[in-house]
Amino acid sequence: MEIFLAVFLGTAFGFVLQRIGAADPDKIIGMLRLTDMHLVKTILTGIGVSSSILFLGMMAGVIDSGHLSVKSMHAGVPLGGVLLGIGWAISGFCPGTGLVAAGSGRKDALFFIMGGLVGAGLFMLMYGALAETAVFNSLLGGKVTLSQTEKYEALVSGFNGTLFAVLIAAGFIVLSIKLPRSLR
Predict the structure, then answer these.
(1) Is the pTM of this model over 0.90?
(2) Burial class (CB in 10 A: 0-12, 13-18, 19+), 136
(3) DSSP state of 148
């Protein structure tokens, strides 16, 4: 049953990405150049709404925080983020939008996907050598969240992390409303 739910949700998410233009490299490049803020506003709204639902649901006991999977922050994560950003800016695709674009028939997306698979393969081959370097040194305490959960410590103790997370989420929503359609 879980596989059907995954296929349904993945298909629905892909449909939404295609519908809002996130699988169009020209729209993504416009977003990265800050000339077309439509996708920025959509992303900020999505993060704000989903984060609010997540943290308020955990606070109300509707969502079990034990199901969250928090990854450790390593020194290599910012480096990987920079590499992802460079690839995103060059190609006009991120991993999710590249798959959606390929599904809609864009041939350039197939080259993007192949490049991602080659990069992942190279990382896999180099993993043993990289594991011994500073790339995997833990940053910010390792596995931490804004809000204390059953399994994870809060990044900063002494305040209500759930309230802080909801305030950040509300800030994202307000920012998405206040941003102009273009910064030109």
Answers:
(1) no
(2) middle
(3) -
